[in-house]
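Hi R.,

Here are the chain sequences for the assembly we discussed:
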Amino acid sequence: LDASVGASIFLKAEVFQRGGAFKFRGAFNRMSFLSDSERVRGVIAMSSGNHGQAVALCARLFGTSAVIVMPKDAPRSKMEAVEGYGAEIVTYDRYTEDRAEVVDRLVAARGLTPIPPYDDYQVMAGAGTVALELFEQVSALDVLVVPMSGGGLMAGCSTVFRALSPGTRIVGVEPFTGDDTKRSLEAGERVRIPVPRTIADGLQVDIPGVLTFEINRLTVDEVVTVSEESLVDAVAFLFGRMKVVVEPSGAAGVAALRSGSLRADGQRVGVVLSGGNVDLSLLVDWVAARPDV
Amino acid sequence: LDASVGASIFLKAEVFQRGGAFKFRGAFNRMSFLSDSERVRGVIAMSSGNHGQAVALCARLFGTSAVIVMPKDAPRSKMEAVEGYGAEIVTYDRYTEDRAEVVDRLVAARGLTPIPPYDDYQVMAGAGTVALELFEQVSALDVLVVPMSGGGLMAGCSTVFRALSPGTRIVGVEPFTGDDTKRSLEAGERVRIPVPRTIADGLQVDIPGVLTFEINRLTVDEVVTVSEESLVDAVAFLFGRMKVVVEPSGAAGVAALRSGSLRADGQRVGVVLSGGNVDLSLLVDWVAARPDV
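And here is the predicted structure of the full complex:
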């Protein structure tokens, strides 16, 4: 990897986190603040997958129940994992329904406590422990690369680095088709885009979070975008040469570096591999569509 | 994994070793003993894949050249990796030709030094550092599980555990179709079997090594066998739930535990994942043939 990029790369492999992604950190931190009566009524989360798994798992750990609202085209492996943790799944159509309304109805009817996927200070703080650990493990980095969706992982991680390593260049990565944060930073305000169609299902939001954007506009130096092809290349490279299973969203940082969207010649670069929940059959379809990988 | 097996499992992930498998350890140790004149002439190795990669990589590190003799049906990824390290490949037909003769011809013609894949004390000692590290990392184990092919990994690992942890039960794993060591231990002498056809291409030898067998007959408590189906299940489980890429040979220990070939209820079990060099397309074919995985 170092040779192919021309830099010293340090991968923070959140694929090995409980639930297979960094999302456990934010959900656990948020749910540790539940009151006794909130725990009795249960929690609810809307999620394209990894956040749902994290909330389902944490609900079990905290002895409460969870309803997970998922798009009906979410990867099968993610649905099965949520059910495996004992949570209830409610599905919606991500191209025609407003998931927030689906959640609001359930909250009103059952008195559930929403666990936001990113737009919450306790969730962001939990996610930021990714960067805290990475800093403790490898210290000085010239560049920190973080995939961006709602922006919670970046808000937590960039806050940590701005405090502990202010000279580090902080770079977000989005799919080319899902560049809502890049556009928002350029516009100086939150910009909504059409729901992006990308294999990076974890990066498929259409607008940055309110709270996350207020932080990221101050902390992030740059957002770069990556093509679908470079996401497949990165997933295949991480599989074949690093022996790590990473989902396309999680491989966005490696995609940016290997494709040249992000140049970091000779630098020390920390890259967050944010999650590894990918169906083998999907991985194969993507690679088959690119026989040169 | 613990829940599915009913034991506390500690995976020693040699997939993250240089070259993607434990083989680097033995090759490096052996090649550190090369004389100056041997280094000038170069080395040769016969290998179904991972040993070849290790020797090719070590040749570069020691500033010498390597010829790797490989079966012509070896996985493409392994051939490409060997070439990527700058070694020369000579192929043979594993069902009709004697690979030892192919090597002997090249040794005689070019004055190359053979680096044996397992039947060599320095190679075994290098491989044994897998167990030494595992012992330092997790100390007391009730059971140590090691895939067996020529027996070099087992000879090194079992020697370490017999010295440092004599009470640990030492279990080898072979494919059901490639049970040469199991038969040899039962017979009290080396037994040759037909070259096994198995997806575990790294465990495809037909007879234990001479030196390795003399050690393993004294150190190994038991050899269990696993089916092809359980190898696929183990590879798929390690991919889907552990996010680690493991080749069928490397997953033999997990296959034994998950299939019930090896019972270790409530025990602390160390399992060597010996390598991770697997083509994505092959992995898919295997899983597709077992749709319930």
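The longest strand of chain A covers residues 169-175. Residues 121-138 of chain A form the longest helix (18 residues).

Let me know if anything looks off.

Best,
T.
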